[in-house]
């Protein structure tokens, strides 16, 4: 996929423009689906939303949550799952790796299109030498476990922060940290070459800019940064960060290994007076990022290449530790867009963000801050009032996902509709809210 846009001009410049500037986002742009929050919708609704309302067809999750993996079955969305950092030592042993694959991949594959397994997340940044020492063995063990299970089309990799570099400026001088370059990265890159899997990195210009380089970080017009060694001028920090990693790989003899951008993004809100944090800047970075990675232009050291890229993140996550970390999401938990980077179906990237709801229809769903105890009370009340709750009973079309929030959502809407759709009947002591977004999913249909 990384070379597709290089060859297309040979056949037709029109097709090149079509795929490399438009439709290709379906194939190259993914989203990180983080869950550090207590107000997110059920995974089944998230899967339906991504499938039906966005052009995304790739997600990456930070664990192997079975409810999420199951929700994406038969959606056509590719899923990257993760072995948590705490499990790396264990899965570096063949028996444990086989058990992990049997528990977290085999029950869902191929109905869920799992295409990659990440072994940990930014492991090198932890500084845990024992964890780091077991990283490459764990990658090999999981790969072998997949083959033993008869699965040969799931890649194995691990995402890295840019802290893996000892030098990054100018980009052509990029080098991995000493000792780790030979002991960790050389064998890791050899594994990637052998298995045709990508080296995954997390470039964040947001964490590297200052007041003089903000426009450079945001893809806005600027004078650029000149690399005297190559004679190349960099007009954005994202390219410079990718090329610094590429230079480090090339120095070890692995320039042929593909690069995937596992995470990148920009927060839309932060603490008062926090430099560079605003809705306008988040839009500038992510909208220009999407255009850039799909343009086929590549970087100065990697021309004519496209990069599979995962934006961070799908939702604002309210349990993250700082204001800016809680506001990297493209969407709020009710699926309303914080802003649109051009991934919503039937909308224009330049149009104001909107879900284009069916204004004639309304549904009742739980508020994002409603507690499980309150929602269970709502279920008990509705189901004892004569409303048919069979759909959320075991075997019913709305039983899965088997969570209090999902069941309450169906029950509260059923009560609301049965009583004429009056706002008062969606109050539920301030735990219900009326929405124009249809919460139906798969075979679970909500009346309206």
UniProtKB/TrEMBL annotation:
EC number annotated for this UniProt entry: 3.2.1.39
Location(s), subcellular: Secreted
GO cellular component: extracellular region; plasma membrane
Coiled coil: none
Keywords assigned by UniProt, alphabetized: Disulfide bond, Glycosidase, Hydrolase, Plant defense, Secreted, Signal
Pfam families cross-referenced by the UniProt entry: Glyco_hydro_17 (PF00332), X8 (PF07983)
Keyword Lyase: no
Primary localization class, coarse: secreted
GO BP annotation list: carbohydrate metabolic process; defense response
GO molecular function, one term: glucan endo-1,3-beta-D-glucosidase activity
EC supergroup of this enzyme: hydrolase
X8 domain mapped to chain residues: 362-446
Catalytic activity: Hydrolysis of (1->3)-beta-D-glucosidic linkages in (1->3)-beta-D-glucans
UniProt signal peptide: 1-25
InterPro entries xrefs: GH, Glyco_hydro_17, Glyco_hydro_17_plant, X8
Family under the similarity heading: Belongs to the glycosyl hydrolase 17 family.
Name by which UniProt lists this protein: glucan endo-1,3-beta-D-glucosidase
Organism: Solanum tuberosum
């Amino acid at each position: 996929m990384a070379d597709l846009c290089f060859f297309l001009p040979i056949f037709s410049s029109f097709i090149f423009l079509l795929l490399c500037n438009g439709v290709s986002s379906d194939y190259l742009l993914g989203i990180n689906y983080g869950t550090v929050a207590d107000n997110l919708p059920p995974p089944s609704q998230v899967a339906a939303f991504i499938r039906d309302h966005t052009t995304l067809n790739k997600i990456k999750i930070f664990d192997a949550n079975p409810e999420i993996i199951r929700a994406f079955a038969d959606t056509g969305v590719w899923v990257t799952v993760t072995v948590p950092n705490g499990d790396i030592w264990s899965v570096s042993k063949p028996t444990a790796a086989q058990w992990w694959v049997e528990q977290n991949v085999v029950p869902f594959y191929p109905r869920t299109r799992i295409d990659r397994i990440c072994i940990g997340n930014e492991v090198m940044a932890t500084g845990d030498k024992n964890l780091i020492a077991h990283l490459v063995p764990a990658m090999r063990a999981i790969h072998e476990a997949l083959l033993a299970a008869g699965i040969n089309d799931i890649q194995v990799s691990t995402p890295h922060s840019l802290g893996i570099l000892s030098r990054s400026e100018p980009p052509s001088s990029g080098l991995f940290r000493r000792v780790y370059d030979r002991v960790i990265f050389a064998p890791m890159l050899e594994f990637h070459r052998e298995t045709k899997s990508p080296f995954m990195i997390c470039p964040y210009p947001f964490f590297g800019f200052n007041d003089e380089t903000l426009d450079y970080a945001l893809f806005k017009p600027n004078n650029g940064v000149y690399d005297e060694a190559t004679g190349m001028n960099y007009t954005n920090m994202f390219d410079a960060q990718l090329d610094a990693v590429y230079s480090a790989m090339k120095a070890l003899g692995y320039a042929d290994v593909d690069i995937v951008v596992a995470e990148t993004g920009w927060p839309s809100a932060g603490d008062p007076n926090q430099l560079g944090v605003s809705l306008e800047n988040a839009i500038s970075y992510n909208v220009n990022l999407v255009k850039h990675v799909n343009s086929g232009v590549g970087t100065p050291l990697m021309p004519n290449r496209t990069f599979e890229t995962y934006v961070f993140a799908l939702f604002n996550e309210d349990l993250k530790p700082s204001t800016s970390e809680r506001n990297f999401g493209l969407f709020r938990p009710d699926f309303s867009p914080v802003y649109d980077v051009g991934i919503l179906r039937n909308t224009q990237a330049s149009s104001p963000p909107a879900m284009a709801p069916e204004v004639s229809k309304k549904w009742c769903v739980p508020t994002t801050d409603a507690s499980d105890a309150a929602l269970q009370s709502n279920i008990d009340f509705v189901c004892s009032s004569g409303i048919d709750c069979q759909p959320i009973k075991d075997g019913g079309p709305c039983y899965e996902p088997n969570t209090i929030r999902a069941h309450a959502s169906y029950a509260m809407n059923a009560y609301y509709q049965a009583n004429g759709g009056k706002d008062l009947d969606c109050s539920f002591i301030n735990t219900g809210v009326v929405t124009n977004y249809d919460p139906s999913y798969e075979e679970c249909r909500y009346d309206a």
